[in-house]
Specification:
homodimer; Rossmann fold; Dihydrodipicolinate Reductase, domain 2; 3 domains; eleven-stranded mixed beta sheet; six-stranded parallel beta sheet; elongated; ACT-like_dom_sf (chains A, B); oxidoreductase (chains A, B); methionine biosynthesis (chains A, B)
């Protein structure tokens, strides 16, 4: 078969990683695909020292790449949601297949992009958009295609997991670890995107769509960051046999879809609780297969490039296939997507870890437990400890599963008590079973 | 598109699981594939109470199924390597695509079966043959297709992992846990197949072929069981921060392929060391992606059926594709398989854990360390303990990585010392890095 010709747009971390994989593993890839994959053109504002561009057709205008009639597959590796969107739509318009690593673009504009791709009969592949090198899109969309997916839960932001791991292993405060993560290059100067869960919400949006067959609904994803988690919270969780992880969780209920990113207590016995540092992992629970977990590097040029090039190979293999018999973009046929609503966060169900400062005197505990009981909340475990040199002592309560609306009502009542100092810290608990 | 018609041969655990998934998730599957998958015929010696066969065309002769002109895909779920082989070859001869869960058949006769399938232009899919519901074949063959795979290591026999987990968590002896596993139905009356690693060797043979692009070479797989592991070995390993797991390991070196199943010490910090009970997990290290791990149920009707039906869906999707542009059976094009040899076990390289009984007197330790040193073996750590009421004390040595040939020579010399009682227990150590 004749070679497949690709054009690479963007030569940053992921672009250069993808370029180098195509170069270094060319022989292995040809042995697999039965045809070579040739870099026909590279579009980048500047060269990258990581890539030997000798003999490569390089243009400074990425739109040259999508206009190049020789090119079968356009790799969009520039990031962002403005120029990248124009680029991808133009590539589709020109009849090119597209491979992208752009989670924000897919999460925010995927519905429009996939509709256009379907109209033009081309593929838009996006394995690299979620969890870097972990083939989680393929796992859910194809590997578990026999299942009705019940829920998924993942550590899908390496920066956040590095911070939570360091806080847990070394009892360090958030701000201290964040500064180190910035020094190490794991976190940006403005860490909002990672630390407040926006990046994870982009990825969760995509995972939920392909798991349940719903349109992409980034704007409905509940997002809560890790910046308010204290070393004390982490310590109490540990004492109770739990780790605090920043998880993206999507669950299908009869009422609708839970779609939420937030700090979460999970049992130390869970494999997911033992995923440390910058690594990513996603649990998926299917009705036939039961719980599964997939683990690997969630970022970096080569791991993310591994997913980009796997997509290029997949697209190369379907170039000769019937467009109506491909794996659909969102795992389900475009005309069979579900209109199951995304639930408001008040409607989700979860266990809760509550950490509050109370006055060390009779009756306070009774008031609190009464408020919880009145709101239909039952207590699983409780820790009250002395705090030296203070009249205030910490009280930690772990509850059974309850609707968030009830918990909100209880917390409002508890915070109104005169014997409570400040806010109640509330962290959700998941049993992943 | 018109429905895809399948025939199920065998209605045991996996057959009934697959049947019920197709029935129960019919709507979800049709939403995914864009066409329905219809059970045209079932061939089984007897009915199964787990399946509602009302209105199903059932035959007692499974060869009716492969002869049925209506059927597109034959599901071989009878097991064994005699009738199953005839059935699969006949199905291929008749131009049917085949989906099988049969690890022994693929590991021992896959080369012949795939050659015939290639000749006839049909697919033989076998995701369910390795690690039950975990989509590890798809992960390696497609998800990590951009990588040169360096090595893989897996817990790929649930019975063995249940036994090792119980021995480790409860300090129980092997024979005791095996009896419980048999009572629970995890182990057969004759447990040889699981406990001596033959089942794992079948699976490892398949994984190695698709990772490295080599023909299936079951007969060259080194296989060592767990029946000689003692509670004392497990205890010492724990003290050193290790778990003992029964692993299948395949590694590519410049000299050839290491292909081996044996008990293995791995650090407790490894995610793989925390995979417990009957669960399976496979680590794969690619040059671009780095280390990955995939975890899930390795057996059972529904988990294994999850992989069977995912294969049926995959085949349904390639029915309209160019046969020369499919994912090759062994991940690499049939004419591009490598002739890299499988190394004899003496040529493998590994760390070692040695456990021996020595006389508690001066000079013994010096003799042993001298023998190790002379054979080029350096010691990483060492434990010598008192044993009450005995002149013999246990000596445990952990070594750095060395060639097995050297270790064999050293052990022969150590066992010849007059101050050693009995054999030296030798367990390999892997760092998985």
């Amino acid at each position: 078969m004749k070679p497949v010709k690709v054009g690479i747009c963007g030569l940053g971390t992921v672009g250069s990683g993808s370029f180098n994989i195509l170069r270094n593993n060319a022989e292995e890839i040809t042995r697999r695909v039965g045809r070579s994959i040739v870099i026909e053109q590279v579009g980048a504002r500047r060269d990258n020292d990581m890539c030997d561009l000798t003999g490569v057709n390089v243009t400074r205008d990425i739109f040259d790449v999508v206009a190049n009639p020789e090119i079968d597959i356009v790799m969009e590796l520039i990031g962002g949601t403005t120029i990248a969107k124009d680029l991808v739509l133009q590539a589709i318009e020109n009849g090119k297949h597209v491979v992208t690593a752009n989670k924000a673009l897919i999460a925010e504009h995927g519905n429009e992009i996939f509709a256009k791709a379907q109209e033009k009969g081309v593929m838009v592949a996006f394995e690299a958009a979620v969890a870097g090198g972990i083939p989680i899109i393929k796992t859910i969309r194809e590997g578990l295609s026999a299942n009705r997916i019940d829920w998924l839960a993942g550590i899908i932001n390496g920066t956040g997991n590095f911070i939570m791991t360091e806080m847990s292993e070394k009892n360090r405060p958030f701000s201290d670890v964040l500064a180190e993560a910035q020094a190490l290059g794991y976190a940006e100067a403005d860490p909002t995107f990672d630390v407040e869960g926006i990046d994870a919400a982009h990825k969760l949006t995509i995972l939920a769509s392909i798991a349940f067959g719903i349109p992409l609904q980034f704007e409905k994803t509940y997002t809560e960051g890790i910046s308010k988690i204290t070393a004390e919270d982490v310590g109490f969780a540990k004492d109770l046999g739990y780790s605090i992880k920043h998880l993206g969780i999507a669950r299908r209920t009869d009422q609708g879809i839970e779609l939420r990113v937030h700090p979460t207590l999970i049992s130390k016995k869970q494999l997911l609780a033992n995923v440390n540092g910058v690594m990513n992992a996603v649990m998926v629970k299917g009705d036939a297969v039961g719980p599964t977990l997939t683990y690997g590097a969630g970022a970096g040029g080569l791991p993310t490039g591994s997913s980009v090039i796997a997509d290029v190979i997949d697209v190369a293999r379907t170039l000769t296939a019937d467009p109506d018999n491909r794996v659909p973009h969102l795992a389900f046929q475009a005309n069979s997507l579900s209109d199951l609503p995304v639930l408001p966060v008040e409607e989700i169900e979860s266990g809760y870890f509550l950490n509050m400062s109370i006055e060390d005197k009779a009756g306070v505990l009774a008031n609190i437990t009464q408020i919880l009981s009145k709101n239909g909340i039952s207590i699983e475990s409780l820790i009250q400890r002395e705090r030296e040199g203070s009249d205030l002592v910490p009280l930690v309560v772990m509850t059974h599963i309850v609707k968030e609306r009830n918990m909100n009502a209880a917390i409002t009542e508890i915070e109104a008590l005169s014997d409570i100092s400040g806010k109640v810290q509330r962290i959700r608990v998941e049993h992943l079973a």
